[in-house]
């Protein structure tokens, strides 16, 4: 072999060795991809939860086709329907009666018939009205029955219907026509011909039953930012109560503290030089107040939550299971998220946990602001829960679920990825102790929580709805408010009603009150209500009788009647209030779940108000009533547009019935007063703007159930704490030495708008 050949072979060998070293070094730097481990096999009764499942798009379409062919009247698609037409307003699940469901779930009874609830607006009738039909059985309906009088005690008047998108479009066209009558004024005040201005509705619509007269507030519109912070000082009152759009009228105009009969009168005063005009420039996109565009380039990524061996929860159809928890979930297009059949360790704790209503009540010295009392259920809390942004609205690796609805259309719509489910490490111990006396040891458990989340955008505000399930057997319900504040044009004594947050922008004070229904079934359906609190007693010390001790003692009380169990808003209530079972735990105490409310609610509307009964649920931070099938909700979507004669008045639920050993429901109000300030620009932050409540086991178990958690940690001074077998935390370095499998980022939330 020649020297040249030897040198060539030696060179190739060195190159091969170098390449292998590079590969090995690279493999050490690049962690393996995380491998998801299979979860335990779920039980065969999983499909039982489908009794609560939201309607599928195909079921919705079947209901529409059935109604179109069996009502005997012409139906116009709601997105095109005039007030004088008939249309299908919405189709949703008709939740079966509780007794039927429990016979099916617990007693081996037949599966309840699957039915839909269809709401129709009949404008083309001698007596226009709103009618509700139950349609079934699904998926191939063959019957329908009118349940309107059964539910509401009579016909629902037509004027109570929520405003449709088509109606808003026609109102906007009317306002644009009227604005053309004041061209010189608009040029001077707003650098606009009117087409660059947008309208914001207020509600309710008038002052008495039958009114459909609405103030609309005008704002500068700038693409890519919230117009809610750019009022121009102009507001108009529109009467849109007539069935014929051609007869709608603009009744009044407000500008900068003054009222006018028409836009023509406004123009006339401007031309005459007797109108004080605040000249506003058209905002520019790059400098507009309230822009959410980043002002700095992106930095390094923050901490990322991921599951190194895959999710430890399971989602199958509408059922979630996680470390002893089982929950059936869904979404009402009006009221929003609803959960059913919540069980822990196989025992039902809550039959129904559902959002009922969200109230936003404003103050201002402008007519639109001062008359606003939004009842968001009538707009659609569930319908406007849009796609969630992975990595921001929810953890990147969360499970995202589509929701379907049929509202103001004959075709179902889908909000993709509009509900998320994830396990959350709160970076806080659920419990822990470090022993520094007698024996030396440490014991603890991470506070890992299952979270079900959805976010609703109701015009300017975004509500984050969370339902959390803890390893201690506790349920936590929480809502955060963010998004844009609503504002009025700053004039006169505006700061009596809020804070100035811009050159001509008043952040108007308002309250957010949220109402929930909690149908607790603690160790069975029959429960009672017990309160516990502390009192002091003054006693002589028993060992000398010379000194006085102020001794706390426990004061227990069983509440017998509904009137006793209705606790007014913002009045101190017993610190411990529990749903108790007749059955004791191992230590002789009634098995119970405690309700603990976290709220900073504002003042409820005075009961002397003509519209107070429509939101009478807000009188109480907590009210406990006997459960009745005919009292499924605390409010109605029809209350918004006729609050003076409410379709459902919660105050009527409380009639002093016995609540001892009965099937009971807790109705809970949480909320906060919001006085907008400079830091609400561009958006209200979630910090400090979260309220909610807990359902906590209280003597329900014989000990804290989390002691059975496989995540528990314990080690003593006599152990090698760095050994994986002695300390699970020591296993993390190897168990998590992998890279999460992150799917490519995708967002399709703008597609359905």
From TrEMBL:
It is an enzyme of class 1 (oxidoreductase). The keyword Oxidoreductase applies. One of its GO terms (cellular component) is plasma membrane. Residues 161-258 form the Copper amine oxidase N3-terminal domain. InterPro entries: Cu_Am_Ox_Cu-bd, Cu_Am_ox_TPQ-bd, Cu_amine_oxidase, Cu_amine_oxidase_C, Cu_amine_oxidase_C_sf, Cu_amine_oxidase_N-reg, Cu_amine_oxidase_N2, Cu_amine_oxidase_N3. Residues 305-706 form the Copper amine oxidase catalytic domain. One of its GO terms (molecular function) is quinone binding. Contains 1 topaquinone per subunit. Signal peptide: none annotated. Pfam families: Cu_amine_oxid, Cu_amine_oxidN2, Cu_amine_oxidN3. Keywords: Copper, Metal-binding, Oxidoreductase, TPQ. GO terms for biological process: amine metabolic process. Residues 286-310 are annotated as: Disordered. Topaquinone (TPQ) is generated by copper-dependent autoxidation of a specific tyrosyl residue. Residues 75-143 form the Copper amine oxidase N2-terminal domain. The modification 2',4',5'-topaquinone is found at residue 461. Gene3D superfamilies: 3.10.450.40, Copper amine oxidase, catalytic domain (2.70.98.20). Its EC number is 1.4.3.-. The active site is at 376 (proton acceptor), 461 (schiff-base intermediate with substrate). Its cofactor is Cu cation. Belongs to the copper/topaquinone oxidase family. This is Amine oxidase. It comes from Donacobius atricapilla. The lineage of its organism: Eukaryota, Metazoa, Chordata, Craniata, Vertebrata. The gene is Aoc3_1.
